[in-house]
Write a structure and sequence with these properties.
The chain has about 325 residues and is α+β, with helices and mostly antiparallel strands. It has five helices and 13 strands. A hairpin with a 2-residue loop joins strand 12 and strand 13. The chain starts with a helix and ends with a strand.
Length: about 325
């Protein structure tokens, strides 16, 4: 074989080896791309099932540079979307006094999630989950929460241990040397509150139902007496009163009775107004022991006439 034939043989052989290498590389690239596409499809199926954490792990595989720039960019965008959908909750373990509890072990759905809660968010798939919190020397605390997609700022306070004991009463000395017992930190119980509105409306009803009728009856009685005396005086003093007759006395009695009738009817009017005021101005609530509303109706009679005094106090 001459030199020309040998050179041609070497050239053909090299070309064949290069073509074989290119074909093998192309087949490897196709296999990688097929795997990346399949991984992305699996991630989409997991997202539909709510298994966002598993979907994120698969998307991280297809976001690798070996899957090509286009596939890698698409998977990276899907990872960002999945991260936004994954819920996160921060648990705040507290004791009965409201203090932080350290060394809390967390189990999620029966599986250990963290040996020690450190204040970071617990990231988990959406849905209903059981959370168990364990601390040495305390009874485990189990809670169930439903976590929703895109709920990434939720905070839950977990009470661990017995609740705080009731605060002891405090002794407060007064200025005159006496000691007043004051309960600190406990609000007044419901039985310490009374309905002032109901009480005041009841008082108004009593004024309208009792004081008003009594005043009207009294006024009517005085009015009838005045009419009777005036009729008697008129019959005895026609055309004029005889000396020593009963007429002048009956006239005086009639005038006094008429005045009493006026006063009684004035009291009736005051009772009507007072009863209405009591019912309309009744407040909503008051503490037991506070002064009850009072209404005073006082008739005043003198030689020159009469008047009615209406007074009272409202809380």
């Amino acid at each position: 074989m001459n030199r020309t034939s040998l050179a041609g043989f070497v050239l053909v052989a090299c070309s064949g080896i290069a073509a074989l290498g290119t074909s093998t590389s192309a087949r490897a690239d196709d296999a990688t791309m097929t795997k990346c596409i399949a991984t992305n499809d699996q991630a989409l199926d997991l997202q539909k099932k709510g298994r966002l954490l598993d979907a994120r792990r698969l998307l991280a595989q297809c976001a690798a540079p070996s899957c090509g720039a286009e596939m890698s960019e698409a998977c990276a965008q899907e990872i960002a979307e999945v991260n936004a959908r994954i819920p996160a909750v921060v648990f705040l373990p507290k004791n009965g006094a409201g203090e932080d509890v350290a060394g809390v072990k967390l189990f999620v759905d029966g599986t250990l999630y963290a040996e020690r809660l450190d204040g970071s968010a617990v990231v988990i798939d959406p849905g209903e989950h059981e959370f168990r919190f364990e601390v040495a020397g305390q009874e485990p605390v189990t809670k169930r929460f439903v976590l929703h997609e895109r709920e990434n700022s939720r905070r839950e306070t977990i009470l661990i241990g017995p609740p705080a004991p009731a605060l002891p009463p405090a002794l407060r000395p007064s200025g005159d040397g006496q000691v007043t017992l004051t309960v600190v930190g406990n609000p007044p119980s419901p039985h310490q509150l009374d309905s002032t509105g109901s009480f005041q409306r009841t008082m108004g009803t009593l004024v309208l139902a009792i004081a008003l009728p009594v005043a009207i009856i009294t006024g009517s009685t005085f009015g009838l007496l005045a009419a009777t005396k005036w009729s008697s005086a008129t019959s005895e003093c026609k055309p004029s009163c005889a000396p020593g007759s009963q007429g002048p006395s009956d006239v005086s009695s009639a005038r006094s009775a008429a005045f009493g009738a006026d006063v009684a009817f004035g009291v009736a009017g005051a009772a009507l107004v007072g009863g209405i005021v009591l019912r309309v101005t009744a407040p909503a609530r008051r503490l037991v022991g506070s002064p009850a509303p009072e209404v005073h109706v006082t008739p005043a009679i003198s030689d020159r006439g009469g008047s009615v005094l209406l007074g009272g106090s409202f809380q």
